[in-house]
Amino acid sequence: MLTIGLFAATSCSNDEFVENDDSTQQVVKSEKDLFRFIYDGKEYAEEYEIIDSIMVFKNAEIGDLICSLESNPEVATLNYPDGLVHYFKSNKEFEEYIQSENFINEDIETRLLYPRYLVSLTLRVYQDTDFGGEMLMYTNPIEVPSMKNAYNQRPPLAFKDFNDIISSFQFTSTVLSSQFTPNKSCTKAIVTFYEHEDYVGGNISYLITPDAPNASHNNLKNVKRCPGCKTNMNDRISSFKIVAYAWHEN
């Protein structure tokens, strides 16, 4: 059970709350910390404690807000490299946000002064935790509407059924500083994993930038779209997209 407010229980379930390691972009599990997130256009930084594996918020209103995410099967989550989490009410709201000029150009002044690029975008998805078992690899921007007949870009080239079996992933790139735009490069990129085929259902996304060019998780059993969500993302991914911003390819 997830406890909300100062030791005030609610109906939210959180038996498998998200943990963190050096390579993840999720909430840190500790005795006391701040949970930083954005929802409905407002940014929050709320103190919580983990007591006997129970998440305890001092602010009862924030607890109620997080519980409301649980009741929404289409809640979408964008994880930033600095640990900030942005929640959206639907995939449509999420897509509109990542296609908006505000998001695309939010760091344009820095990019103009210090031009750096992400090159060699690579996503590896693994059947087992800890990056084990069979693996599929994808490079550059791509959309895969169904993992039931997913094409592996790594030799031997073959189609595989990877639907609902992904347990870990690595999203990596290389940073290049240059006054000239390199071939097959971008200024930032997002990988988005969807629970159903054709980019339907709830999703969880990870942003990478030249300041933080890699995102990975070794165990999707520890990843949930929201703290109160009952299910994790292990063996639940059916489609995905890699979106690259200011993508340049000669």
Structure explained in plain terms:
With 250 residues, this protein is mainly beta. The chain is built from 4 helices and 18 strands. It has helices at 60-70, 91-98, 101-104, 108-113; strands at 3-4, 8-9, 32-39, 42-51, 54-57, 76-79, 85-88, 116-128, 132-139, 142-144, 150-152, 158-160, 168-177, 185-186, 188-196, 200-208, 215-217, 239-245. A 9-stranded mixed β-sheet has the order 5-4-3-7-6-16-15-18-10. Strands 8, 9, 13, 14 and 17 form a 5-stranded antiparallel β-sheet that branches. A two-stranded antiparallel sheet has the order 1-2. The chain is globular, with a radius of gyration of 18 Å. The model is unreliable at 1-11 and 13-30 (pLDDT under 50).
